[in-house]
Amino acid sequence: MKAKKYIKFTHDWQEKAFDLDEALFAQFYEARERLMKAGLMGGDDGIGFGNMSVRSKDQRNFVITGTGTGLQKSFTPRHMALVTDYAFDRNFVRSIGLTPASSESLSHAAIYQALPDVQAVVHVHHKKFWTEQLNKLPTTSTLAEYGTVELAQALYDVCMHQQVCDEKIIVMGGHPEGIIAFGEDLLTCVDHLIDKVNP
């Protein structure tokens, strides 16, 4: 899969299906449809962009869309992955699924670790919103590039400020066009993001 080269972390990937709740997948499917329609998820020059995740009941694991799946015309459970472990200090992610976990898995993990009440994270691209809101909304350092430990750390640090909890959106300063939103559930998070980007 071409998109694998965008994964920058050490990845212990078990290529096998995992038990994905049908109702949860339905939420992912609906969320993806809304994001695609809004132009916040998709593909550009053969590169898929946009990913989303939901925290598992055990609070440590999370289900996330697979890497590069923004390019897929159809979306099925085979395009999902379960992140079962991660370590920022080792730049490491362990996942199970028929598609490798998103290259932004550590970014999602950082937000879950920083904000225990957050149940869903969505990462999208939108050039106009990114440009307009850079350093106006909570923004990570321009030195923290996508898919890196530095970005995960920067997201964790930004999450320590009250404005982030109020806004529930972070501009990724070192990841042009990159925006992250989070919330109490996936569809609420997606709707909040769409309302902000396309008022």
What does this structure look like?
By secondary structure, this protein is an alpha+beta fold. Helices cover 31% and strands 24% of the residues. The chain is built from six helices and ten strands. The radius of gyration is 15 Å and the shape is globular. The N terminus is likely disordered.
What is this structure, in a nutshell?
The protein is of the alpha+beta class and 199 residues long. The protein is built from six helices and ten strands, in the order βαββββββαβαααββα.
Helix-strand blueprint:
Blueprint: E1 10-14, H1 22-37, E2 42-44, E3 47-49, E4 51-55, E5 62-65, E6 80-87, E7 92-96, H2 105-114, E8 120-125, H3 127-133, H4 149-158, H5 162-167, E9 169-171, E10 178-183, H6 186-197
Parallel strand pairs: 1-7
Antiparallel strand pairs: 2-3, 4-5, 4-8, 5-6, 6-7, 8-10, 9-10
CATH-wise, what's the superfamily?
Answer: Class II aldolase/adducin N-terminal domain
CATH class: Alpha Beta
| Proportion of residues in helical segments | 25-40%
Annotation field: number of helices: 6
Query: What is the CATH topology assignment?
Result: L-fuculose-1-phosphate Aldolase
Largest sheet: 8 strands, mixed
The total number of structural domains is 1
Low-confidence stretches: 1-5
Mean pLDDT: 90
Distance between the termini: 36 Å
Q: Per CATH, which architecture? A: 3-Layer(aba) Sandwich
How much beta, percentage-wise? 15-25%
Shape: globular
Order of helices and strands: EHEEEEEEHEHHHEEH
Strand order, biggest sheet?
Answer: 1-7-6-5-4-8-10-9
What would you call the structural class?
Answer: alpha+beta
